[in-house]
UniProtKB/TrEMBL annotation:
Gene3D superfamilies assigned to the protein according to its UniProt record, in alphabetical order: ABC transporter type 1, transmembrane domain, P-loop containing nucleotide triphosphate hydrolases
Domain ABC transmembrane type-1 stretches: 40-328
Any Pfam family the entry gives: ABC_tran
PROSITE patterns: ABC_TM1F, ABC_TRANSPORTER_1, ABC_TRANSPORTER_2
Name of this chain's protein: ABC transporter ATP-binding protein
Native species: Ginsengibacter hankyongi
Length: 609
C-alpha cells in the first residue's frame, strides 16, 4: 500500500543521531559474535596505522632540517640523514602493507558479518506469524533490515575507520599544539560549517530513502514481473510489458528527480564549504610562513606544521562527514534491531498440555470469529461446530466465504479474534504449537513449487525426514506422484522448475500430486487439504480420493473443494456463507434440506448434463 512519501517524514535531528549512536554497542556485539579473531586483528591493525601519519611527518621535518644543516656545512656527516630516510621509507612500506591488510580483514569480516546477519534475519523471520508477513509496515521493516546486510558491511569499516581517524587526529593535534595551539581553533572554524551542511544533507537523503521504501518494493516487484521465468508467460500473453515498463519508468523517474534535486543542492553548498575550508587552511599557512621568515620556526617545522594542518583538515572533514554517515547508519541499524524486537503475536503456551494421541473428541469451534488485522470485515464469524475425531469434513462455499481462513485457524496460523477452538476440550493455545504442527498435514491451494529436486519437493512436508527415501517414495505412491517420478530422467533426483540448470517444468496437476504427497510425509492426525485436486483430471481425482479415504482411516481430515464429486465423499459437509456457518450435515441430509448446498450442487450438476 503506497504511503505518503519523502518530505512529510520526520528527519532525524542531531540529537536523534547521537541517540542512534547508542545502537553501536549492539552492533559491535554482532561484529564480535561474527568472528572474534578478525575483530581483534582489525582493531590492532588500525591502532598501529593511526600512529603512522604523524611519525612520517615528523621524520620529514627532521630530514629537511638535517638537509639544511648539511647544505650549510653545519652537520658532521650524512649518516643521520640516511638513517632518517631509511626510517621514513620503512614506515611508508609498513603503512602500505597495513592498509592492504586492513582492507583484507575488513572485507573478510564484512562478508562473514553480512552472512551472519542474513541468517539472523531468516531465523527471526521464521519465528514470526503469517499475520505479520501480511502487514505492509512489517514488510518495510524487513526490507530495510535486509538492505542492511550490505549496508552494514560498509558501516562496519566506516565505524572502524572513524575510530582510527580519531586516534590519528589526536596524534597530529598533539604535534600541532606543541607548536601553536591557535591553529587548532582556526581549523575548527574552517570545518564546522561544512559539518553542519553535510549533516543536513545526510538527513534529507535518509528521509528520502526511508520514505521511498514502499515504492522501492513496488519498483523491485515491477522489475521481477517484467523479467522473470515465472511471470514471462502471462506478461507475454496479456502483453503487459508496456504497462509494467510505464509503471517502472514513473517510479524510477520520481526517484531520480527527487535524488537529483537533493544532489544539486548538496553539490552547490559543498563548493561553498570547500571554499571556507581552503580559506582557513591558507590563513594558517600564511601565519606559519611569516613565523618561519621571522626565524621563529625552522623550515622543517614549517613543512611539519603545514603537513599536519593539511592532514588534520582532511581528517577532520572526513571524521565530521563520516559522523553523519555513521550516525545515519546507526539510525538504519535502529530499523535492523527494531526488526528483531518484533515479537510473534501467536502466544506460546508456557506449560503446554501434552498433545492427545489419538485425538478422542476432536476439534470444537466455540463461537469463533476472525478478522484479518488489515481488514474491518469478519472473514469468519459465529462458527460453532465440532470436527469429530476421525471425521472427514468438507468445506463448501463461494469464493471468499472464509474456507481457507477457517483451516488456517485450525492450524493456528492465526488465533481467533473472538471465541476459541478446543481440541479434546482444551483450548488449542494450551498446546505446544510445534506439537500441533507435527500432528497436522496441510496443503494449501497456493502451495509452493520449490525449484528443487522431485524428492525434496515432497520432503518439505516433513523436512526432518528429507533423507528417508522409502518414506518419500511411499508418500509419492499415496498421491500418485510416483507414476510421474518414473517418467522423469533422474526420477526422484530430477530437478524441477526452470530456474536452475536441467530443471523440468511440470503441469499444474503434476505439481499438485507432488504437493499432495507432502501431506503424507507426516503421520499426522489431522489432514487439511485446500483444493487438493482442482488441477487433477477426472480419473486422477477419482483415484486420489479412493486412496484418500483409505489413507485417512483413523484420522481427521478437512477438505476444501469446489467439486461436489469430491465433497460428497466426506462424512459431513459444512457450508459457509460470508464467513458464517449456514449448513452442516451429510451429503444426503443437505440435499434433502434444499438449502444453499442443494442449490449449489444442482447448479454444478446441471453443467454436466
Ligand atoms: N491475508 C488476508 N488479509 C486480509 N483479508 C484476507 C486475507 N486472506 C483472505 N482475506 C479475506 O477474507 C475473506 C475470506 O477469505 P478466504 O480465503 O478464507 O476465502 P475462501 O472461502 O477460501 O475463498 P476461495 O474459495 O476463493 O479460496 C475474503 O473476503 C478475503 O478477502
Amino acid at each position: 500500500m503506497p504511503r505518503p512519501v519523502v518530505n512529510t517524514l520526520p528527519k532525524p535531528t542531531l540529537k536523534e543521531k547521537f541517540a542512534a549512536l547508542g545502537n553501536l554497542p549492539r552492533f559491535f556485539k554482532l561484529v564480535w559474535e561474527t568472528n572474534h579473531w578478525y575483530a581483534i586483528l582489525d582493531a590492532i591493525l588500525r591502532l598501529i596505522r593511526s600512529a603512522i601519519p604523524v611519525s612520517i611527518l615528523y621524520i620529514g621535518k627532521l630530514i629537511i632540517d638535517e638537509v639544511i644543516l648539511l647544505s650549510k656545512g653545519l652537520a658532521a656527516d650524512h649518516t643521520y640523514l640516511w638513517e632518517l630516510v631509511a626510517a621514513e621509507f620503512a614506515l611508508a612500506i609498513i603503512s602500505d602493507a597495513l592498509t592492504r591488510a586492513t582492507i583484507l580483514v575488513d572485507s573478510l569480516l564484512g562478508d562473514l558479518f553480512s552472512n551472519y546477519t542474513s541468517i539472523k534475519i531468516m531465523e527471526h523471520a521464521a519465528t514470526l506469524d503469517l499475520d505479520q508477513f501480511e502487514d505492509s509496515a512489517f514488510y518495510d521493516k524487513l526490507e530495510r533490515a535486509r538492505q542492511q546486510t550490505v549496508g552494514r558491511t560498509i558501516l562496519l569499516s566506516q565505524i572502524l575507520t572513524q575510530v582510527q581517524d580519531i586516534i590519528t587526529m589526536a596524534f597530529l593535534m598533539v604535534g600541532l599544539m606543541a607548536f601553536n595551539p591557535w591553529l587548532i581553533l582556526l581549523l575548527l572554524i574552517a570545518i564546522v560549517p561544512a559539518f553542519l551542511g553535510e549533516s543536513y544533507f545526510n538527513d534529507r537523503s535518509y528521509a528520502l530513502t526511508r520514505g521511498q521504501t514502499p515504492e522501492r518494493r513496488e519498483l523491485d516487484y515491477m522489475r521481477y514481473l517484467g523479467a522473470s521465468d515465472e511471470t514471462a508467460k502471462e506478461v507475454k500473453l496479456f502483453n503487459l510489458s508496456g504497462f509494467l515498463i510505464d509503471r517502472f519508468k514513473t517510479l524510477s523517474n520520481k526517484f531520480y528527480d527527487d535524488k537529483k534535486k537533493l544532489s544539486i543542492k548538496r553539490a552547490s553548498w559543498g563548493i561553498f564549504f570547500a571554499l571556507l575550508g581552503s580559506g582557513g587552511y591558507y590563513t594558517a599557512y600564511i601565519v606559519m610562513i611569516l613565523k618561519t621568515v621571522e626565524g621563529a620556526l625552522t623550515i622543517g617545522t614549517l613543512t611539519f606544521l603545514a603537513g599536519s594542518f593539511r592532514q588534520l583538515r582532511s581528517l577532520l572533514e572526513n571524521i565530521l562527514s563520516r559522523f553523519t554517515t555513521v550516525s545515519q547508519g546507526a539510525i538504519y541499524l535502529r530499523d535492523f534491531f527494531e526488526f528483531f524486537e518484533i515479537e510473534p503475536k501467536i502466544a506460546i503456551a508456557k506449560k503446554p498440555v501434552s498433545f492427545p494421541n489419538p485425538i478422542k473428541q476432536g476439534f470444537t469451534f466455540e463461537n469463533v470469529g476472525f478478522r484479518y488485522h488489515n481488514s474491518d470485515k469478519w472473514a469468519n464469524r459465529h462458527l460453532s461446530f465440532t470436527l469429530h475425531a476421525c471425521e472427514k469434513l468438507a468445506l463448501v462455499g463461494e469464493n471468499g466465504a472464509g474456507k481457507t481462513t477457517l483451516v488456517k485457524l485450525l492450524a493456528r496460523l492465526y488465533d481467533p479474534t473472538e471465541g476459541r477452538i478446543l481440541l479434546d476440550g482444551v483450548d488449542l493455545r494450551e498446546y505446544d504449537i510445534m506439537d500441533l504442527r507435527r500432528n497436522t498435514g496441510i496443503i494449501f491451494q497456493d502451495f509452493l513449487r520449490y525449484q528443487m529436486s522431485f524428492a525434496q519437493n515432497i520432503a518439505v512436508g516433513n523436512i526432518d525426514e528429507q533423507h528417508n527415501r522409502p518414506l518419500i517414495e511411499q508418500s509419492a505412491e499415496k498421491s500418485l506422484a510416483n507414476l510421474l517420478a518414473n517418467k522423469l530422467a533422474d526420477q526422484y533426483d530430477q530437478a524441477l522448475g526452470r530456474r536452475f540448470n536441467n530443471g523440468v517444468e511440470l503441469s499444474g496437476g503434476e505439481w499438485q500430486k507432488i504437493a499432495l504427497a507432502r501431506a503424507y510425509m507426516k503421520d499426522a492426525q489431522l489432514l487439511i487439504l485446500d483444493e487438493p485436486t482442482s488441477a487433477l483430471d477426472a480419473r486422477a481425482e477419482y483415484e486420489v480420493f479412493l486412496r484418500f479415504a483409505e489413507l485417512t482411516k483413523g484420522k481427521s481430515a478437512v477438505l476444501i473443494s469446489h467439486r461436489f464429486s469430491t465433497v460428497r465423499m466426506a462424512d459431513r459437509i459444512l457450508v459457509l456463507d460470508k464467513g458464517e456457518l449456514i449448513q452442516i450435515g451429510s451429503h444426503e441430509e443437505l440435499l434433502q434440506q434444499k438449502g444453499r448446498y442443494a442449490e449449489l450442487f444442482h447448479l454444478q450438476a446441471q453443467g454436466y448434463r
